Amino acid sequence: MLKAGIVGLPNVGKSTLFNALNRSRKAAAENYPFCTIAPNLGVVTVPDRRLEALGAVVKIGRCVPATIEFLDIAGLVQGAAKGEGLGNRFLSHIREVDALVHVVRCFEDPDVHHVTGQPDPLRDIEIVHTELALADLDALQRRREKISRDLKSGDPQAAAEAHVLDRLQAHLNAGRPAVTLPLTREEWILAGPSHLLTARPILLVANVREGDLPGLEANQRVAAVRAYGRTHQACDTLVVAAQLESDLIDLSPEEAAEYRQELGEPRSGVDDLIQHAVTLLNLRTFFTFNDTEVRAWTVPAGATAAQAAGRIHTDFERGFIKAETVHWEHLVQAGSVAQAREAGHYRIEGRDYEVRDGDVLLFRFNV
User: Fold this and answer.
1) Whole-angstrom Cα distance, residue 89 to residue 37?
2) What's the rounded Cα separation, in Å, for the pair 89 and 85?
3) Interatomic CA distance for residues 294 and 105, integer angstroms
4) Average pLDDT over residues 239-248
C-alpha cells in the first residue's frame, strides 16, 4: 500500500494532525521537540460519497471505504542531513513513503514551543527543503561513485544515467526540488536508484488555530505559504486547524458536523487532507460489490484490470478472464444493474484495460 509521510519541524502539529486522521490518540503530541521518535503508522479510511449512492442502487447496506496509509515522522531540524537532531533516522523514514505532507505552523502561541524560537512559515519550509535537498545531493554523489567504473568503460546506460544525475544536481543546487525537474518517464527510471527525497510529490499543510479559520483570506502567513508552494515547489497548500480536528474526534460525527456549521466551516479539514493525499499518491478508486457489501479499492494510476483484480486476491489476477465494467455514475443514473445493462452501459474489458477512477468492476476468473 502506498504511504503519505507527515513531515515538518518539531512542534508544528504533525502528530496532532496524525491523531485527527486516525481518530485516535495513537501518537503522542506533547509540547516539546522530538516528542515523536519512532514513526507512527496509521491506516486511514477514504471518505467517498459514491459508496452510499452505489449501495442504494444495488440495495446493499454495508459500504467499505478504501484506505491509505499515513506515516507520522519525527521532526526535522537544521543540520539533519549531517546527523543533527534525529538526522539520518528521520531521512530513512522519509525514504519509506511515496508522497510528503509537509506541515507548516502558521500561528503564534507562547505556550507551544517552537524549535527556532519563533514561527516563520517560509523560513521553516526552507529548513526542511534544504535538508532534504542536501541529503539528495549526497545521494547523487554516492550514486555517481557507484557507476563511475561503468562510465569509464563507455557503458551507454551509465552515460545516460550520469547525464540525468548532472541535471538533477544542477536543479537541486538552484534551490529547486527534484520533483519540479521536467524529466521523461525513462529519465525518471534512470534516476530511480538514487532514491531522491525531493522527487516525491508534496502537499503543504498550513496549520492554523481554530480562531483563524473565519479570516483565512486575510491571513498573511497562509497567503505566503500558498505563494511559496506554487512558485518554488509546484504544489498545492491546504489549510487545516490540526488541534480543532484532533479535538473533534471525541465527538460523534453529527456533533462534529454541527460544531463545524457553527464555525462556518462545514467541510472537514481531515477529509480534505485525505482526498488530497489520494490525488498526491496518484491513485484511482474502483468499486466492487457482492451479496454482502459494496467496497472501494485504490490502485496506482495506469493499473490494469488484471492488477486491480490482484488487489482483491492474487487468485483473481492469476486466473483473470475478463472484467464486466460500468462507470459508477452510469449505474446510479440507470437505477439498477439490469437497467444499466439494458442501456448498454456495461462492457467487457480484458486484462490490459486501464482502470479509470469510478469504475465498478465485476471480475471473472478461473484458477
Assistant:
1) 9
2) 9
3) 39
4) 93
Cα(227)–Cα(209) distance, integer angstroms: 20
40 vs 295: which has the higher pLDDT: 295
> Tell me, what amino acid is at 100?
L
What CA–CA distance (Å, rounded) separates 11 from 26? 17
Burial class of residue 94 in the structure, from the number of CB atoms within 10 Å of its CB (0-12 exposed, 13-18 middle, 19+ buried): buried
Bridge partner residues of 289 (DSSP): 294
User: What CA–CA distance (Å, rounded) separates 63 from 203?
Assistant: 29
* Locus of grid cell 471473472: 364
For residue 33, pLDDT over 50 is answered with no
- The amino acid occupying position 121 is P
Which residue's C-alpha cell is 490494469?
304
Cα separation of 269 and 256, whole Å? 12
Report how far residue 34's alpha carbon sits from residue 9's, in angstroms, rounded to the nearest whole number.
9
Neighbours of 156 (CB within 10 A): 8
- Residue 338's pLDDT band (cuts 50, 70, 90): very high
Report angle CA 45, 48, 53 to the nearest 5 degrees.
135
Q: How far apart are CA 307 and CA 183, in angstroms?
A: 26
Query: For 51-103, what is each residue's pLDDT tens digit?
Result: 999 999 999 999 999 999 999 988 776 654 454 444 456 678 888 899 999 99
Residue 238 has pLDDT above 90, yes or no: yes
Residue with cell 477512477: 357
Strands (E), the chain: 3-7, 40-45, 63-64, 67-72, 99-105, 202-207, 237-240, 283-289, 294-300, 320-327, 347-349, 359-365
Of 265, 274, 180, 275, the closest CA to residue 228 belongs to 180
Vertex 361: Cα angle to 351 and 313 (nearest 5): 70
CB atoms within 10 A of CB 285: 21
Distance CA 172, CA 157 (A): 23
Helix/strand/coil for 273: helix
Cell numbers standing for residue 106: 502558521
**Taking each helix axis from N to C terminus, what angle separates 220-232 and 121-152, rounded to the nearest 10 degrees?**
20
Q: What's the confidence (pLDDT) of residue 85?
A: 43
Three-state secondary-structure class, residue 274: helix
Helical packing angle, 121-152 and 87-94, nearest 10°: 80
